[in-house]
Amino acid sequence: MFTKIMTPVDLLHIGDLGKGLQCGADLARLYDASVVYVGVTSTAPGAAAHNPAEYAAKLADFAAVQADKHGIRTEARAAISHDPTTDLDDALLRSVTDTGADLVVMTSHLPNLTDYLWPSNGGKIATHAACTVMVVRG
Amino acid sequence: MADDTNQGIPAPEGAAGIIETDYEIGQDNVEAQVGPFGIDIHNPVFLISGLSIVAFVFYALALPEQSSALFTWLRPALTSNFDWFFLGAADIFVLFCLFLIVSPWGKVRLGGADAAPDYTYIGWFAMLFAAGMGIELMFYGVSEPLSHFATSLGGVASEGGARTDWAPLGAAEGDQAAAARLGMAATIFHWGLHPWAIYAIVALALALFSFNKGLPLTIRSAFYPIFGEAVWGWVGHIIDTLAVFATLFGLATSLGFGATQANAGLNELFGLPVGTTSQVVLITVITAVALISVVRGLDGGVKILSEINMGLAALLLLFVLLVGPTLAILTGFADSLLAYVQFLPALSNPVGREDVNFSQGWTAFYWAWWISWSPFVGMFIARVSRGRTVREFVICVLLIPSLVCVLWMSVFGGTAIQQVIQDGYTAVTDAPLELKLFKMLDALPLAGITSFIGIVLVIVFFVTSSDSGSLVIDTITAGGKVDAPIPQRVFWCIFEGAVAIVLLLGGGLGALQAMVISTGLPFTIVLLLMCWAILKGLMSEKT
Hints:
heterodimer; A: Rossmann fold; B: two-stranded antiparallel ribbon; two-stranded antiparallel ribbon; about 5% strand
């Protein structure tokens, strides 16, 4: 049913993504699909990495660890954004198209008041992505 | 390796001398949930900056006479006692930048050896201008050339051996052509190489230490070569707090004064009543548009507004050029440029000046003003300049904006001077500062349309200063993180508007603006240290 699953990850909050990562990996095994882990980074040094190249390398390491842990095929994709605070969704949506993913599995926080002002990332991806989107409550 | 072609921004690869430090970006940050809002703020800097700004506003409001007396004494005291220091330092900045263009370090690329530029030239220039000068070009483009022209024409006056006139250098008494030439040269001097060199130094230091050395995008990072690891402690906290302080008060007081100026323009054009109600509404509208811009982000908000503004400004410039005295403006442009080069050594001479009113009241004041704005503008320029080589960066930040300023001043100031000389048009000289532009446009065809474009430009220039300033303050108070939650940038944008309104209603705009300009003195020392830090940083890069 699915051949490529995209899972957005935040390298600084991997601990919060447990259910989403597991879910994505389980589905990959079920449908013999590969998982592409997508991370969005800024061009400026951040807490996760000094520069985009370092970020991409860390994300690739993360993908390799997931492949070993779950016994699945994985790849990594670092998307660069000038202003990740506001452009995260757009960067993820572009990645959906560019990776050719046919399923997105992403973790989203419990809805709260701020979602009325700024829709959650999961909500926006589910609204605008052309493929199937599964939002996993963290 | 990252495949980021969809973004149009290749990831940097290749050599870049990262500084090995134990400090991790964000390690001093507090991440918490305040009600429904997530926050990610630098522990002492956010709180100290916020509280000290509130304290200074209270001081200005509670003791208006004392604060006004202190700061309005302090500002001229600094520019008259340290004029040699401001002038000498600014000369060093220009020479240092010119040296970088021809030095082998000009080849060093910001962001690593193989980094590609984040923005196209158009988008980059638009943002440089919108943050760097913007609004002042609207108000001073006509008034400053006229002012120097008039004082030069008036000649030299002295009392007790000291010059009492405000003319630059030796003036040009009774000679209209020479006075116009000197007036244009003096204006271009204040808007040309020197201010842009000031911005270039700060921007280059931050871009180098952030994009090449991997340090957080915040002012303290430029001091790593000097203070080492101590820069992550209180030394750095003080530097960053000072930068936030100067940026927020600089923006808030400009917003307050700008609202009164825009109010006067709108009164002239549409009869909008002049008063605090109109001004508060203007600040609120400007803040609201800036708020939308910061929430839309750097590409979706700030860049688009900057490009719209640059387009409108180019349109207005072209219109005045075509319907104004075209030939006189074009020859004036070349002549002004020559006059600038001719008078540059004398105008930038830091010692033994006889034109004390001009060199202290105009030049030293301007240098202090540009320097006090440099943390904000420099940091913003740094953020959008990744991928340029040092040579390209300095040429584009120093030479091209200087040339555009010469063109702008030649077109607007040159037209106004021609109106006075050729037509004896006095409305432009008699008008208050905020109306001079509109009076000049009045004497040209389609004045209603061009004045409206002028007002829109004034307002959008305020918005582009406000939104880029909010992003800068947000990044500094988040310890250099550019991905702090949206509510923080919203907070700073609203806070800035609120401070402007409080100061407008309660008085104190003048006093606090004087205080901001006073921060120019410590920042001059900071900038001199930055030159040394840049050299040290570049030496560790592969050329």
